[in-house]
Design a protein that fits this description.
two-stranded antiparallel ribbon; Fumarase C, Chain B, domain 1; three-stranded antiparallel sheet; Fumarase C, Chain A, domain 2; 18 helices
Length: about 500
């Protein structure tokens, strides 16, 4: 099987790509070889962890031969104790695709039939209802993935056409027979990093887009504030050679006209939230390549335990279920993303404050005449943006440092990777809300700046962005509820509506 990348998982999650299992004989035989090897060991009375023994700390407990077939069902049953919000259908598709990617490596001892059943679920849109809470990220995502194992066997509940229904009749109506899991198959499904890695793929895609969108907003904010574009000079950035930071500065140069020196009474040095924007956004831009490497290495790994080396006829007991790389990636990403929210929050504070916005009205109110006194512009929006920013910053405490000893001290060091990934998605959600607020703000700010000075003409890319924003968000003269505008813009952000830089 070829290497799968983040974009493949994202496309499967959003429904723009489907999953098919290779018909190549060499692939099918490689998968079958592992399952056949386990069957032979069982016939020879071999001791196999999780097949002829109990799980975890119970690995010293031998399972009688006549009970071996029941063990997988017990594993997914007793792990059915998740709570919290259920993962969305898109997130669940990503989880199934990520687990399938790992199992298709051929080192998990599962059957082709199991892989085909997972493909059937995706093909028929029958997606396990998976609670989001209950994983410590080692021994893998046991509790959430147990819900996948249960549905494969016709138990539990599934998402179908946006509603949650019992799995058994849903599978029956789709013509899918429930599986009876072979020895080790429940362990292979559950004992891995699929949930945290799937969420990391989705998080990466959103963070990558935000680097571009926050840069474009910064350019619009600089224009609205009548800022000094020379802060993004090419020679200036040559002397600090972080490539992502340099790329962000280059994007800003594309969007803004740089004069040889400050003119027309502009400040010699703009405040940090404008002047240092490449240095803030650049942290995430420079982190993205190694974040991709960590996420995609995990995505393309066999990460359960034990690993089945059918070619060498060995059972290898290790700890590949440990999600430390994803935990660190997600803890790092959420920190860099929250800093984008903080950057935009500070830009908004400048834009709405008549002491700092270089001649724009207080709160960017567009009203003129006697009704000025009862109109408050973006006053409340700035408060909300600060609230969303504060919550995002609060969540930057790294989850990976909160390891807990669990399961009778067998799992005495765990990754917390799934909590880190969930936190990261929440930080992204909050930051996107701040971005929506800033899109309204910079659209209003540029309109007011040009009302003061109609001769000001933005660069073509900014003008195009303003035209697109104008189709969604009217300028604000008389106060109005902004929640509908915010929700519309959030849809645009998450749908990656705007084409931003190359």
């Amino acid at each position: 099987m070829g290497r799968i990348n983040i974009e493949d998982i994202v496309d499967i999650a959003d429904g723009s790509a489907c999953v098919m299992l290779s018909e190549a004989p060499e692939f099918r035989s490689a998968i079958a070889r592992g399952a056949d090897f386990l069957d032979r060991l069982l016939r020879e009375d071999g001791t196999i962890y999780g097949v002829t023994t109990g799980y975890g700390d119970s690995c010293t407990v031998s399972v009688q031969p006549d009970l071996v077939a029941e063990l997988p069902q017990h594993l997914y049953t007793y792990h059915g104790c998740g709570l919290g919000e259920s993962f969305t259908p898109a997130q669940t598709r990503a989880v199934i695709a990520t687990r399938l990617t790992s199992l298709c490596k051929g080192f998990s001892g599962v059957s082709v039939e199991l892989l085909e059943q997972m493909v059937r679920l995706l093909g028929h849109g029958l997606l396990p209802r998976i609670p989001s809470e209950g994983s410590v990220g080692a021994s893998g995502d046991l509790t959430p993935l147990s819900y996948l194992a249960a549905v494969l066997c016709g138990e539990g509940e599934v998402w179908r056409d946006g509603a949650i229904v019992p799995a058994a009749p849903a599978l029956a109506e789709a013509g899918i027979a429930p599986l009876r899991l072979r020895p080790k198959e429940a362990l292979a499904i559950m004992n891995g990093t699929a949930v945290m890695t799937a969420l990391a793929c989705l998080a990466y895609s959103r963070a990558d887009y935000l680097t571009r969108l926050v840069t474009r907003i910064t350019a619009l904010a600089s224009f609205a504030l009548d800022g000094n574009a020379d802060h993004f000079d090419a020679t200036l950035f040559l002397v600090k050679p972080h490539p992502g930071q340099q790329r962000v500065a280059g994007w800003l140069r594309q969007d803004l006209s740089c004069a040889e020196s400050p003119r027309n009474g502009k400040r010699l040095q703009d405040r940090y939230s404008i002047r240092c924007a490449p240095h803030v956004i650049g942290v995430l831009a420079d982190a993205l390549p190694w974040l991709r490497e960590s996420i995609e290495n995990e995505l393309n790994s066999a990460n359960d335990n034990p690993i089945i080396d059918a070619a060498g006829e060995r059972i290898l007991h290790g700890g590949h279920f440990y999600g430390g790389h994803i935990a660190f990636a997600m803890d790092s990403m959420k920190n860099a993303v929250a800093n984008l929210a903080d950057l935009l929050d500070r830009q908004m504070a400048l834009l709405v404050d008549s002491r700092y916005n270089n001649g724009l009205p207080a709160n960017l109110s567009g009203m003129r005449g006697p009704r000025i006194a009862i109109n408050h512009g973006l006053k409340a929006l700035q408060i909300s943006a600060s609230a969303w920013t504060a919550e995002a910053l609060k969540l930057t405490m790294p989850a990976s440092v909160f390891s807990r000893s669990t399961e009778c001290h067998n799992q005495d060091k765990v990754s917390m990777g799934t909590i880190a990934a969930r936190d990261c998605l929440r930080v992204l959600e909050l930051t996107e809300q701040v971005v929506a607020a800033l899109l309204i703000t910079v659209r209003q700010g540029v309109w007011l700046r040009r009302r003061l000075n109609p001769s000001l003409i933005p660069q073509a890319a900014l003008e195009h962005m303003l035209d697109e924003l104008g189709t969604d968000v009217a300028v604000i003269e008389e106060d109005r509820r902004l929640e509908p505008d915010l929700r519309l813009l959030l849809g645009r952000i998450r749908g990656r509506t705007w084409k931003l830089y190359e």
